[in-house]
Design goal:
With 383 residues, the chain is of the alpha/beta class. It has 2 domains: 183 residues, NAD(P)-binding Rossmann-like Domain (Rossmann fold), CATH 3.40.50.720; 178 residues, Rossmann fold, CATH 3.40.50.720. It has an 8-stranded mixed beta sheet, with helices on both faces. A hairpin with a 2-residue loop joins strand 16 and strand 17. The chain is globular. It starts with a strand and ends in an 8-residue tail after the last helix.
Amino acid sequence: MKVVVLREMQPGEARVALKPESVKKLVALKAAVHIERGAGLNAARTDTDYQEAGAEVSSDREALLNTADVLAVVNRPSSQDFARLKRGAIVIGFLRPLDEPAALLPAIDRGITTFSVELIPRITRAQSMDALSSMATVAGYKAVLIGAAHIPRMFPLLMTAAGTVPPARVLVLGAGVAGLQAIATARRLGAVVEGYDVRAAAGEQVKSLGATFLEVDLGGIKTEDAGGYAVELSDEAMNRGRALIAEHAKNADVVITTAQVPGRRAPLLITEEAVNGMKRGSIVIDLAGSTGGNCALSQADVTVERDGVTIIAPTNLPATVPVHASQLYSRNITAFLSPLIKDGQLQVDMNDDVVGPSCVTHNGEIVNQRVAAALNAPIAARQ
């Protein structure tokens, strides 16, 4: 079985799907690993590092695609790369099947089996495969550093001969993985932090990190699904939340937003009026920019200025920390693939409670119900 890793071609992407440490593990399982020359350079891994780990390195991208049994990627392959894969090949990576389902049509045409790491279920056995959480951790961390570098003041409380310097105030919206990492990082830097989430259960996690939890009275309505994700709320409930956020954003130096719903537009948390009420020199870092943004003024990968307030919506922060982002992602991919490799051959069981739910296309058909619904297409039984 041949596992292939290519150089990522998306602008600004510096991560690599597998690092040499993971290559060693796959080679030990009798898999043949082939790397496109230069694939790991931005993540501080040379071609020699890969060769010493047991991989073969090649400059022939087309030949690698033509012969791959498994293509491990960070971002979804282009339609041209899909067309170069042989029928029956397997692709695993961030494929964005709920946000851009039509982009996987070339995989259906080629009879390619695709596994999207966004769809890996949140169960105990799959925790080591949870690439979404890995990348959210990196994004939450980096968002705080961006805020600290941007605002015209320091983060920690300082006692100096010239007097006391008060700490910066940080407001984090959403207490998922990215939000909790942002809270933890801001606290480490000495900021006073507030955290907001519609899920009352998130309050204990926020408080455990030394932040104040902002809780809005929603009248006891259901705020999360069985998987622990926030559910879509009524307009009345959302307006209550926005009012609370606007009040606390007035005093914040940094506001970090992290709320996203797979396959849907990100919820609006910060209105234009709320931005108008923020103080000069403050910044909003919107981590939901790729799905419309949590702030009314956000534009994906564009810096917006409004009366001294800066709004940025970076869509790929993990790529700005490529060494550790690649390390975590590589471990996630390896944890997914390793149980499927038996004596150097891939044995895929579509009835497995991790493999099945994460599969999008197989044997020229869509096998994921949510993706089929998005494309208004029939769903095939997993085999």
